[in-house]
Amino acid sequence: MDLSQRNRNAVLHSNLSQWILQNGGKIHKSLALCMPNDIDGEQTATNSSSSTYNRMPHPDSSQRGIFAKHSSISNGEELIRLPPHLALDGRDLPVNYGELKNASAWLRCLASLLQSWHVWDNVKSNGTVHLDQSKDDNLLNNYLQYGPYLDSLPETYDSLLNWSSWELRSFLAGTTLGIFALSAIKDVDAKEHDADKEDNELETNMRTRYQTTVVQYLNYLKQIGFFALAEKDRDCNSFDTGKNDKLDLHSKAKRQKTESDHGTNAEDLYNLFRRGCMCISTRAFHMQSTSSSDTGDYQGPYLLPYIDLLNHAPTFSSKHVTTLRRDPHDGSFVMIAERDIEKGEEICHSYDSGGHDDIADVDGEDEDEINRRKLTANLSSLTSAQLLQTFGFVDVKGAIERLSHCLKKDKSLSTVNGSQPQTNLTPAIITKDEICQTCKDVSMSSYPNSLRRSMEEDGLVDDGWEYWDLPLMKDESDEESSTETSRHTSLDGLPDDVIIPYENPLSDELITLFSLNFLPKEAIDDLFCSSHRSDNQQENSILLTEEVLDDYFLGKLVLHSMIQLVNKKLERYQVCFNDEPVECRTNMNGTLDVFLEFMRGMYKESAVDKAFSWGKSEAKDLNVLSTLVAAGSNSSQDDVAQHDLIKKFTYGMTISLEERCCLLQLKRVALDKLLQIDES
């Protein structure tokens, strides 16, 4: 790391620490803000073994963090104490505004952050600030006090908001998170994609969110004196950036830069809003209040100066050294060393541990509970997809260990079906529409007739097994569908999305959704009538268990359809490339072409074939992922753009592999059930 960056970290740490100390807080004298490679050589080489020396879970070592740089720290020593009045949050902002509108805790926290940024930026730009319509001087001083903290915040964030549509489609193909992130695009399922147009649509959706939620609240705060504008911007009557503007976003931004004489800071505030969303998403904490004095029993989000500089490590892993807690006496946010910390170690805590709200809670934890939690030593309570969506990163190294365990071909079903906390994978999602369409396709295929013939030829019909004419599922508005009220009511009562976890993929909801598409009307009517409540009100749904799969005809239809759907969904994770250059703004200066050429070398099966794909072979994808992560820890990271693309690929591929593992596990269970039917 260059000397200038090291000096910037030292100055930032000094300013932030002094600010906290001057306001009644505490920072352990050994702590310092550093890069992982910015620790004296003898500290890392002599005092810390490879098994205990803390490193970031990110696939690179470019992330700064808090280290015990100056001395070792003993178990029980207080590391950080942040008084509650130094937390940046939305407790003091009004909840009700406009006509019957309520501001969420997130919106109030965002408004406080935007005001603090706006005030501090004007102070830094002009040396002073004169605010118009401020409620009182105390309010202004309150926003000004956060200057040292705001200077510690990064300019950019690892957030999905910074992913282009090309990156979302390529790195999160088929995943639930990718589908959600692209949901704002109108023709999201079109065969041909205009990446630049889709980028504009994603940005337009973000601006619409700003217009419909944030702008109205900021204008209300401005009217009552809670949101103060700099004097140069007092002619700005609205924070509106022009929601009906149809110009290309790049042209729009260029135009707005030339209109500074109009005295509007609307676009600047929108950019702060976008940055604020990423800041709160990746850095804020939620914790229960410690007293009734907290406005509205506010539980977060809290932006916690200095504390949010600590990096993540799963609870009870060797890297984890402390847990965020609240002092029940004064509400301070406190972190205490939970083991001896060697000189040179990084101070890590779990972002998602759910920890203890109060310091006093620790003493009441029994030994059995401690042992149970230790079983999840390297397991985050958040999945990789949740980590990426919330905090902007994925613990790729930890995920690789879990994936390697799950993808072993010799794994028996009795092993993987057991309770294994190590297999906390991102679950796959199967939608009700996908199930109904697959069942309809199977009903109209030759499979049911083949199944009937085999039942007759094998003597199953003579033994008492039955088959029936399958219902042709139609829309509820069709006249022929009017006699299927029980079927449609039961389907409507079931969830639109069925979660497929690795540990127990074959749920009752999944079995019921498939079965309702095949059962004869008379059977459903009987089941539906038997589910009446005592007051003669009908239940909204029927829930069937694995026992229904023992019926030869129904079991075969359901399990065959399940496997068909899994195979179809697995295809959606595949991304294919040829040797043509990528045409989109994301490929500025050929960045994507260079990246794809590098990935082609990782994936291609022959030197002649220029086309390649990922998402096709789990074994190959896991091998590439492991290779990239191993190489990343030793790379110089000189090419920032390429490093960023590789990092996003590893994040997306981790989630893709986890979801595919869950689908493959469902397929294995379905195949095993089919085998049991044949053998019975």
Automatic annotation (TrEMBL):
Entry superkingdom: Eukaryota
Biased composition (Polar residues): 43-61
Location of the region described as Disordered in the Swiss-Prot/TrEMBL record: 42-61
CDD domains in UniProt: SET_LSMT
Domain SET, chain residue ranges per copy: 164-352
InterPro entries the record matches: SET_dom, SET_dom_sf, SETD3_SETD6_MTase
Designated name of the protein: SET domain-containing protein
Organism field: Cyclotella cryptica
